[in-house]
Write a structure and sequence with these properties.
- By secondary structure, the chain is of the alpha+beta class.
- Helices cover 23% and strands 25% of the residues.
- It has 13 helices and 28 strands.
- Strands 4-2-1-5-3-6-9-10-11-12 form a ten-stranded mixed sheet, sandwiched between helices. Strands 19, 20, 21, 22, 23, 24, 25, 26, 27 and 28 form a ten-stranded mixed sheet that branches.
Length: 490
């Protein structure tokens, strides 16, 4: 069966999945916003009378209406291709008056086709509905803060999973699976399909899901149609429906919280420790993903972070939630890996945030229930970039330096602490520490007390320090008196 002749069957099944979800699931019945949200701009996909005509419309001009959001890979378009395909300050008025579907690259054309076949009048595509060039990024900065609302309020999201870039397309390669029904002598009917579903390989491991932006796009979308290279999948809060007409259900151990049409409600009901583990795993996964622009690291998950913080009724800043403040600060690079500070133009990201650096991060594995966390650490209410903390000196130490960390050694060469540096190795005599919490190294009353610490260095500003690394150290190697209180860590 060719992809061309298979298109009607594919969209017939998709429409049935959509109808079934609308009528019998709760996925689309609760609105995230109070009232109806529409993006600033949408693409009106045209009418059957004029199938080649499209128009960019303002959300304020629409009296309600459903829209689909597109999740896709940009690839590496040239400057000329950005000028041709993206909405710019120069061409926005032209697009508001109408333009042809043939002005768009293949992936966007396929998104328009799918939107029409699924009987939805409006489509949202980032590169078309946000001004990308010519306005000093003013529109992008404004719209990037609304991204979580765009995806969470979409009727559903189309994921161009098989498209490598905006020119690649995703409908032609997605051949519908051949299938047939047979009936035995007793009258029972059986369904036989050529091929099997493999959501992990077809979707989870696809290049699209290696993009950092997609973490937010996927988690905040209520329902998603994944157009993979092998088959089409429908994902909603009730499970995953496959192109071979089978159904998968999310497991608690796997991506249970990912399959939540009103994320993070399931997560919120899971309890303190499960929520913490998921959030840290989410940040680790995000840190390993690809970004075309390094400076998007603090933006591409900001809406999702805000949604989680609002649900948990806590504050959040730069990948750190106040409810899990101490543990969220105990991140570090994987062994022998180097982080690099990201130069954010026109803004600052604090040194204590993993968003300030490129590269993947991990969180310290500290058993639950064994740490006494300090209550003298908090967000600075007057300065968004700062933590308020107590700073102490190191004492009586000897160190062994390695490529990315140092070991504090005691008598007989016994290891008494370990510090993982973020970007550079600095002699401890120039550094101070912030004690986040204390714990017993073993489950015995007489065992040594260890401190979980941030390692900091004074900046050029009096009373201000920056993070250099993190780790743990025996309490005997930290001065107990001579404490600097009310210090800003920036």
């Amino acid at each position: 069966m060719s992809s061309r002749t298979a298109r009607p069957a594919r969209f017939t099944v998709l429409c049935e999945w959509l109808r079934q979800c609308d009528e019998s699931h709760s996925c689309n019945q609760e609105s995230v916003e109070t009232g109806t949200f529409l993006p600033t701009r949408l693409i009106f996909v045209g009418t059957t009378q004029d199938p080649n005509s499209l128009r960019l419309v303002l959300g304020t001009e629409i009296d309600g209406g459903k829209y689909i959001a597109l999740s896709h890979q940009w690839g590496n378009p040239s400057d000329d291709e950005k000028e041709e395909f993206c909405t710019t300050q120069d061409n926005i008025n032209h697009r508001l008056s109408g333009f042809s579907i043939f002005d768009l690259p293949k992936t966007f054309q396929d998104a328009v086709t799918a939107t029409r076949e699924l009987h939805v009048p409006y489509l949202w595509i980032d590169s078309l509905c946000i001004i990308q060039l010519g306005d000093d990024k003013k529109d992008w900065k404004f719209e990037s803060e609304r991204m979580q609302k765009v995806y969470s309020n979409a009727y559903f999201t189309i994921a161009a999973t098989s498209a490598r870039d905006m020119k690649d397309g995703f409908l032609d390669r997605n051949a519908w699976l051949n299938h047939l029904y047979i009936q035995d002598i007793s009258g029972r009917r059986f369904y036989i399909c050529v091929g099997t579903d493999d959501f992990e390989k077809d979707v989870e491991a696809a290049e699209l899901n290696k993009r950092a932006w997609v973490v937010q796009e996927r988690l905040l979308s209520r329902r998603i149609v994944h157009f993979s290279a092998k088959q089409t999948y429908w994902e909603c809060g009730e499970g995953i429906y496959c192109g071979n007409l089978t159904r998968m259900q999310g497991s608690r151990k796997g991506n249970f919280f990912m399959h939540d049409s009103n994320f993070p409600n399931k997560l919120f009901r899971s309890g303190f420790y499960t929520t913490l583990e998921f959030i840290q795993a989410l940040f680790v996964d995000y840190s390993q993903r690809n970004l075309t622009q390094k400076t998007d690291r603090a933006v591409a998950i900001s809406g999702l972070q805000s949604r989680i913080a609002d649900t948990l009724q806590t504050k959040s800043r730069y990948g750190v939630l106040q409810k899990y403040l101490h543990r969220n600060l105990l991140w570090h690079a994987p062994d022998n890996k180097k982080l690099e500070r990201i130069p954010y133009p026109g803004r600052d990201v604090p040194s204590w945030s993993w968003m300030a650096y490129t590269g993947s991060v991990q969180f310290a594995k500290i058993p639950f229930g064994r740490v006494k966390w300090k209550n003298n650490l908090c967000f600075d209410e007057e300065h968004e970039l700062a933590l308020i903390a107590e700073v102490r000196k190191f004492q009586n130490y000897e160190t062994k330096l390695f490529e990315r960390h140092c070991v504090i050694v005691g008598s007989g060469g016994v290891e008494r602490g370990r510090i993982q540096y973020d970007t550079e190795i600095v002699d401890l005599c120039q550094l101070r520490c912030v004690i986040l919490g204390s714990y017993k190294a073993a489950k015995y009353r007489w065992s040594a007390e260890q401190y979980c610490i941030l390692v900091v260095r004074q900046t050029a500003v009096d009373g201000e320090y920056e993070r250099i690394g993190s780790g743990s150290i025996h309490r005997d190697y930290v001065v107990r008196g001579d404490v600097l209180r009310g210090v800003r860590i920036v």
